[in-house]
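Reply to dn_fold:

You asked what the input looked like. This is it:
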Amino acid sequence: YNRSWPEIVYAMYNATSTMVYDDPNMVSVKASSSEKLVDLSGVDICFHTSLLPNARARDADTITYLAKDYTNVSSSYTVPLPYDYCVGDTETEWLPNSWPGGNVYNLDKNASFTSSNVVKGFPMFPAKESDGLYVTPEHDKDSDETIVSLSPAEMSLPFGNDPTVVQISVAASSTVGYISEELASYFAQYFSIQDYGIQHSSSLTEVQKVELKTVVDKLQDLLWSTGFMANAATMSGWTEPNPDTMPPAAESNYWFTDGGYTDGPAAAQAIARYQQRYGTSTPIKLIISNQNYYTDNNNNIINYFSYSGNEGIEPGAFIWPMGVGEGPQTNPQMSKQIFGEAMSAEELSGLFEPVSGTNLTMAVLPVATTVDNEPFGVKAGQQVSIAVINLNSNIPTFVVTEKVIQAATPGLVSLAEGIASSQDLSDKVAAFVGIASTTTAATTTTAAGGGDSGNETTTTDATNTTPDTELEQVPPSSPPSSANFVGSPMLSLISLTGLLLVLPLCV
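and this is what came back:
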């Protein structure tokens, strides 16, 4: 698949839709309101992705640095930006609904990555007090540093402004985008963590540290010079359904990676989407499906609160958060704190209870109140009840080749069947949202999160009504008027290898 995440995911969709469902046209279906299933009427589906702060156009020997203000190069971003693609009943839109412009520099094609100034001044690991969201790019003084400024209007809208389901799924799930050498600062930030690990290793001699550091530097230079892993991330100039026809990157293209590198469960922008449509006056209930199997912690969740890891950092400000296990996230981010309350890892862990018949555990958190977080679009003052469902199961991202598929299938089938048949889960969720097990309900916002497969967030109005027997149609201009979800089954959208599986939870 040419080391291309778009080609891998396209092949998975194509094989499944053609061989299993006899639907070869599925890979060309647009991610639009007109194509949304009728059964999902009243549900906004938002695909969460991360917009990269800079990227190279290799064939043109240029690099574009996105900036908060494209007329001011010192406002060039140092971290990925959170973006959602939302599909409602009557409209589709990006959240936020505006795009940054940028500044284009010429590159010295003969310069190696590690000897150039292409990422000089950008934050690297470990973080320093002086690190921030913006930087002034610097370049090799021997190169032609002619700058071309591109306004947002001069940038190319992603995927021809009419993406397919496959394209949006790929953009939201480029899990290893950090090894794409086209994404200069993002690429360098990932390798800065590897460098730090080498230098602080207790098992390597000083000579071995130097030797291993040399190997890592040569690897970066090799990738930079060859473009070998370019399409580990997703380039927005991909407009035709089949990525085989994808053109070379241009200066005006945007690049995306997995939404997990800005907000794994996508709770922040799920709330922002709700607030955008309905305001902040009505209390809401938030259900987060958290894939905690690989991370072995709940960092995805406590990052939404005030805790020791974001002490002294304003919501939306620069942070290098904790990630897998005891290690850092692969890149710095904008702080996704959206609640004013404090929450420690120990406090959160103590709230989880087992769900009978499954590997799941569920926690109901104290009611929290939102704070302003401008990059994520969250406004202060909304009360939010929160339930977190930890999956505690391996949901692999790369289900490719017959051997891997056969190995992964039994566990995934068992997980799906266990969730669908669990009366305990049904009762716990129904109790949280305040409805009877047989209740139907109205409008929700469901965000297909990034990061490890299985991250997902659903928001719903907390107001209860008499149980319905038919689907209630809620006008887009008014807030939802009953407790949860559409139709007689509760719907949980689980992001799985770029595919969205709709699993009935029998509520």
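The longest strand covers residues 43-51.
Hope that clears it up.
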